[in-house]
């Protein structure tokens, strides 16, 4: 349920920013949802809210959709227009907006990071659980450097060596959060095709399979394999991730991508469909305790 104001748990903290549930991407999403709830509670349309702060309807919509930075002065003006007068509550919103506007660590990789993928990077760092389905390649969070290089070279044949190295470095940097204290649970379902596709050649694939064996032994990583014999299932159309966050400030978010863009879904009727499809695939896949045996067997054949 969307709350009309910042939660009491946040307001009771001496420093709101010390308890924030994620990085700038998620903070913008939380703030956007809170501002939307306040606008609706005040009975104001986008046009009325924009008029109240001498701005455009587009600006108000972008803020609620977490698109771009959030200027504290604009946030404060909206709060006043929505009838928020409590000084502590206003200060909490402003502290949140300042943190939400800070550049993320991946800002330095803007040259090789597609704009449509930046939200996904922020979501994966802030999630408490990431569930994924991958029908084509090993997920980026579990790829080895040589596998990343092979994928990057094939995907960007005209790239310079420096650009390829930057893409490898970015993906390796993304992987670091999976091994830090308090890391999220990562549960991925792979098609058997992923493990048998010779990306980079036999040597690269053997190393990649060995890396997956190591990853499958981590307490926060679960890997399942859907064998060829499983046949058709509801999600054969493409990869997707489901992000779940701590607390109840944000709903689940589904992420999927194609060659040149991505989409993000957070309506319950949409995310429920994806969750049910993934549950069905988990039932079709081999149990997690058999994954290492499967990986070792395929490794022997590679």
Present the secondary structure layout:
Elements: H1 8-11, H2 24-41, H3 46-52, H4 57-64, H5 72-81, H6 87-100, H7 118-126, E1 129-134, H8 145-155, H9 161-175, E2 185-191, H10 192-196, H11 202-216, E3 221-226, E4 240-244, E5 253-257, E6 262-265, H12 268-284, H13 291-301
Parallel strand pairs: 1-2, 2-3
Antiparallel strand pairs: 1-4, 4-5, 5-6
Helix pairs in contact: 2-6, 3-4, 5-6, 8-9, 11-13
Question: Could you give a short description of this structure?
Answer:
It contains 13 helices and 6 strands.
Keywords:
elongated; alpha/beta; single chain; 302 residues; 6 strands; six-stranded mixed β-sheet; 13 helices
Structure description:
The protein is of the alpha/beta class and 302 residues long. The protein contains 13 helices and six strands. Strands 3-2-1-4-5-6 form a six-stranded mixed beta sheet, with helices on both faces. A hairpin with a 4-residue loop joins strand 5 and strand 6. Helix 8 crosses helix 9 (161-175). The longest helix is centred in the first third of the chain and has 18 residues, at 24-41. Residues 1-21 have low confidence and may be disordered.
